[in-house]
Write the structure tokens for this entry.
Amino acid sequence: MAVLNINRRHLLAGAAAVTVLPAGALAAGAEDATGLAQRIRSGDASARETVLTALDRADAAQAELNFAILIDRPRSLASLPKDDRQPVIPTFIKDLNDYKGWPTRNGSRAFAAAPPATTNEAFVGALAQMNTLPIGKTATPEFGLMCVTEPLANGVTRNPWNPNFSPGGSSGGSAAAVAAGVVPIAHANDGGGSIRIPAALCGLFGFKPSRGRMVGQKRADDAADIAVDHVLTRSVRDAALAMAALQAPNDNTGVPMGWATPCRAWPARRGNDFASASSLPPPMAPFPMPR
């Protein structure tokens, strides 16, 4: 295994990062979602190749990082588009949200026998329409209440830069998946730092949108509804595109804080997906991959 010193832009500066992926997977894992979609559309990569590579990376990384509670290879391959040039971006859903066909265990042994969800929660359902393909669910501390991802139900999730460190929480599984190059983007949510902490610890881009701004949140002024869904990414442009596409519809029950009017309905912006983002600038100063 090769060793690389992490530069000072990372919180783990000076530590050694250990690769947990096959050498051939590293180059593919360095792409952001927008760049990967452009490669598929141009014929430099294929949808099937992209998803198979992500699944192989997921299996390799899972053995070292324990970032996932579910990797669904059969469903992922069965969901591939017929057109191999149609961009498909593999992603993961955090295990606090329902995604149809998979159980939601909330990082808790109390939900170990949870049945498969029968519907998609609004945000993850909309994310899945952005030319993304969920291939599994990521680990979270019990009910997402801790800033590390070490639930008794699943064990410790480790940081790809150095497995002796934590990727943070509560979106630690999603952060580990993106930082390890398994997928370029992963679902996450944040109430008190659950996107921001893992982003800082894993050298990713992530932020908490204003309450009430994203699709699926009930009210902007509900003090009990502090968590907001968004994503963890390797580039600013991917996060910006997701933000633009997944904002709350006009009939949302709360106006986003700091905005004079509700955001436009999501269905009116279906062009805001990774397959259509041909005019976006390249990512600025992308973070290096663990090697």
Summary: The two ends are 8 Å apart (CA to CA).
